[in-house]
Amino acid sequence: MWRRTVRQTDVQQCSARENDMELEELSVAEKAAMLSGGSEWDSRGNEKAGIPSFVMSDGPHGVRRQLGEGDHLGLGASKPATCFPTAGTVANSWDSALAEEMGEALGNEAHDLDVNVLLGPGLNIKRNPLCGRNFEYYSEDPIVAGRMAAGLIRGIQSNGVSACPKHFAVNSQELRRQASNSVIGERTMREIYLTAFEIAVREAAPMTIMTSYNEINGVYAHENKHLLQDILRDEWGFDGMVVSDWGGSNSAVAAVKAGGSLEMPSPGYTSVRELEGAVTAGTLSEADLNARAAEVAKIARMTKTEGVGRDDLLKDAVAAAHHEVARKVAENSSVLLKNTVIGAPARNGEANDAGIANSAVSPVLPLAAGTRVAVIGDMAKTPRFQGSGSSKVNATREENILDELKNAAATTGVTVAGYAQGCDRQGAKNQPLVDEAVTLAASQNVDAVIAVVGLDERSESEGLDRSTMAIPQVQNDLVDALTATGKPVIIVLVAGSPVELPWFDAVSAILYVGLSGQAGASATVRALTGQINPSGHLTETWPISYADCPSAGWYPAIGRDAIYREGPFVGYRYYETTNVPVRFPFGYGLSYATFTYSDLTADETGVQFTVTNDSDVSGATVAQLYVSGPSEGVLRPARELKGFAKVQLDTRESKTVRIEFDRYTFRHFDTAANAWRIESGVWTLAVGTNAENLPLTCEFAVAGDVDATPANPALGHYLTGDVKHVTDAEMAVLFGHEVIAPGKPTTFGVNDPISSWVDSKGFTARTIAKTLANREAKTRQKTGAPDLNMLFILNMPPRAMSKMTQGMVDSAMVDAIVKIANGHTFHGLGSIIAGHFRNQSANKRTAKELNND
């Protein structure tokens, strides 16, 4: 792979003192102007101080460099770029070095497309499988998420481009995403929802970080001093720029005080006036303004791309090389979920009772040479390899499984006997399509069926949470019909999140490929035919049904407050503590090889053990270390992942594997002391291939900094992880305060979403909300994809209008809009008109002031 060597010595020669002097020469208004965007994707530079504007772009799994003004939802055209697998898929590789290799390619393309700051990776915790954006996030576990993100960040920044981990923090649902308040206990927040960000910051030093839309315990993330100053900067040592999510800034003055550096996309000059006025009034320290301006200036200087614009490289060798990287990532991230031994041995080369000619009992995968397959499913021919929303990439190439199977036939000996669509992609019942597929599958010319099924484009998107964990019913009906033929049915499962599998027992094999990027089809074919050995392991638990999920009873929150009632019992921490059966445990993944774990020992710095490949097939396994605290200690889940290693082994090979302890291994957050503590006592260490399969265990005495303290009996149901029956009183003990969810508001404010106007007493506001909702629903039904623009508007609070209209709307006009929401239509319209002219005059004065300066 072609790789650029980056030198930043020229930038670093500019001393901090010289930079400060340059900023000190600027007026308050000029420094304030640097703290908000100049357009949809550009910052504001300052020519006098030698501070260039810089470009930001979405890109957690591919650079989305938009043409012209652009938009932030992926609606407009963008330049071609490599579409790599999404974060939820990459995480299944459990390989931070592979994530770094992908990051190098991402950063390379960002540099050549004149992008200074690449907005990714996303590493929020997968609290619930229905979150519409889970495909963009790594895991339900912070150790996996943090280590994978750190690898990607290092790779991106090796090109002199800033990575931007997001969304900081406690962001777990898309419904009301700009008007939601995450109510969470401090210990849960620190241990579960912030640890991934901490690992990324400490281990990869990202230059930029993006705040989330939501409030956290009543304070917006972008103006949350506890989050941005106390934790991010003072505790973790972050010294970069904090940028708001697009439209996610609430108060420019409060943000600057708390540590928010840059608000995007562009509030025009409204924020400039607010900041200048606050400094003049003495309610904002100029030192805080200077600090934020310095952070923005630092990014501008450290990420100069100097107008390279070499996107033509993507048409040639670089594009081909990066396509290979995308394939490598997809190959290492596919997860073999099931692989059944089919039928009895055949005699004299005749077909066995499953219709496959063989001479020995063997699993259905990998497909043997000579196998004739029926390929069924719309996604086999028209691929789905990424999610919808701001991360959607204009891929340089596209592959599909049907063509890739045909192309590989000469090499693999596996031939395609035919193709059938099988079902309607939009979910409409169509019996002739099913009948065609069944006829093909039942043919004597078919030995096995490859059915490509999963979630469609409407199911996983920014701005929209899933309504169910099921895949479309027409696909379930199709699989049932295919298994009824008696032929082995191999499922290729396409989805960015867990799904229910009602036909699990009836199918012969399942290969989960996630959202595998533009080279996912060829990677899938290579796995099916044994050219590579699947080595992915799940980084989230797959429940049998959605009702089993710990937060199923209160997710997503439909009102303002999203209460994290389940506390630390997220994902496997819940299932392993309560012994609730699951479809696939966290960390699960099969292989064409078999592995044995043995000889576990522990010392003061880590654990060591042996892994052996017992088979005649080379392959890789993911060794996972879990710890359990002292039995007399504080409240904890039954076990928690604290380290892992991807181990590649040749046939019959053994390796000694070591996993080191670190600052995260034994700690817990003591809210009373506001500090991290380690309890002394006997801990249990366990090693294996998933959260349930842990063949190696040992006890280990830890000399901590506090004695083990029994959990408070008043925690009640939390003590056994039974969060579904937790009382309000028990929750108050966990949170450290009483939690009362507010009722439905009787009046609307600047931070209530447009969608809530359906309950307005005013006809105009009510009609606006209902019309927008109906339009989005009709578009989704007609096109098969969500209307991202409508979803954004519905979730948007009025105050965001002043942050996203390049100065056309100011805060006074927002107040007027809210009057309409509260039924004062004519008064509100009059105030809007008057405010418009007043705002235009103010903008002209501010522009003149800045130009004169």
From TrEMBL:
Chain ranges of the Fibronectin type III-like domain: 621-691
Protein keywords: Carbohydrate metabolism, Glycosidase, Hydrolase
rRNA-binding listed as a keyword: no
Gene Ontology terms: biological process: carbohydrate metabolic process
One of the Pfam families matching this protein, by short name: Fn3-like
Top-level taxon: Bacteria
A single MF term (Gene Ontology): hydrolase activity, hydrolyzing O-glycosyl compounds
Family named by the database record: Belongs to the glycosyl hydrolase 3 family.
PANTHER family, per the entry: BETA-GLUCOSIDASE
Protein name: Glycosyl hydrolase family 3 N-terminal domain protein
Organism from which the protein derives: Bifidobacterium breve DSM 20213 = JCM 1192
Top-level taxonomy: Bacteria, Bacillati, Actinomycetota, Actinomycetes, Bifidobacteriales
